[in-house]
Amino acid sequence: MKYSIGVDLGGTNTDLGLVTENGNIVQRRNMATNAYTDFALYIRDFMREVDLMLADQQAIDGQAVQLEGIGVGAPNGNFYTGCVDNAPNLTMKGVLDFAKEIHRYRDTPVVLSNDANAAAYGEYIYGGAKGMRHFIMFTLGTGVGSGIVVDGRLVHGSTGAAGELGHAILYQHGRKCTCGREGCLETYTSARGIVQTYCELKGIPVSPEVTSKLIGELAHQGDPIALKTWETVGDQLGLAMANAVTFSAPEAIFLMGGPAQVGEPLLKPLREAFDRYLLNIFAGSCQIRMSELKANEVAILGAAALLKMK
């Protein structure tokens, strides 16, 4: 049996998994990303974890493990260069050349892309988009990410950074975004944006006690402000998705991430807004669906799936 390694590089932790060809994670390891400022030391310890996973699996299989390669999903991950480019949430600064440093230890294919692209391709190889040729993935969390698949291929663009639909401007002169601009979709439909909308509607200051999860729970209890918050977010996200359809005419748009787990308080107004804003020539051509991958597996499976790109 052949295996691949999927890596979810986060600002706090790095999660690694050994993945079978049919998408089962058979080994998992974890290391603290934020314990490192020296990239060379990080890669040394990273490859130690890789070797331990392979040795453990070899003991189980009773034979040498055939490794397809290492796939990495990372913030600011560049598919073309194999580098993480100046990711602001990492304690290791600058351009981090994963492919080059890994090859110092092991001669194996290394494929790297941003985490939303990895999630999208994981859905394509292992999830609900299997068999589709055209779809978009939106990931809702601390930010809003997206991955676009056209003709069965991820869209990377000329720089390797294409598909940043979370930074499409929704409102001119809107909320200040971490990217330095104003009015990005992320500032309204990320977890932080949802909290800000709720607090504005309620007339209270933003506080750590108010979370998107709490707002979801309140909506299910019938709280009118919470329900209005999700209606607002659904309308904003529906508009963004309808605009995205005009670009690539996908068969489906998948949604994943913590805020999306609220269910119908978001999905009902989202689908209504999407149908209302959608250009009529695309009517009925695109479904809005939830990701079919498990939340605690999607990052590793997505990263491993990157190795299957043709």
According to CATH, the homologous superfamily of the largest domain is ATPase, nucleotide binding domain
H/E order of the elements? Answer: EEEHEEEEHEHEEEHHHHEHEH
Shape: globular
Structure annotation, total helices:
9
How would you describe this structure in keywords?
alpha/beta, Nucleotidyltransferase, domain 5
Provide a quick synopsis of the model.
By secondary structure, the chain is α/β, with parallel strands linked by helices. It has helices at residues 39-61, 98-103, 115-126, 186-189, 191-202, 212-220, 224-248, 264-277, 298-305; strands at 2-9, 13-20, 25-32, 66-74, 77-78, 83-85, 95-97, 110-114, 135-140, 144-150, 153-154, 252-256, 287-290.
What's the SSE blueprint?
Elements: E1 2-9, E2 13-20, E3 25-32, H1 39-61, E4 66-74, E5 77-78, E6 83-85, E7 95-97, H2 98-103, E8 110-114, H3 115-126, E9 135-140, E10 144-150, E11 153-154, H4 186-189, H5 191-202, H6 212-220, H7 224-248, E12 252-256, H8 264-277, E13 287-290, H9 298-305
Parallel strand pairs: 1-4, 4-8, 9-12, 12-13
Antiparallel strand pairs: 1-2, 2-3, 5-6, 6-7, 9-10, 10-11
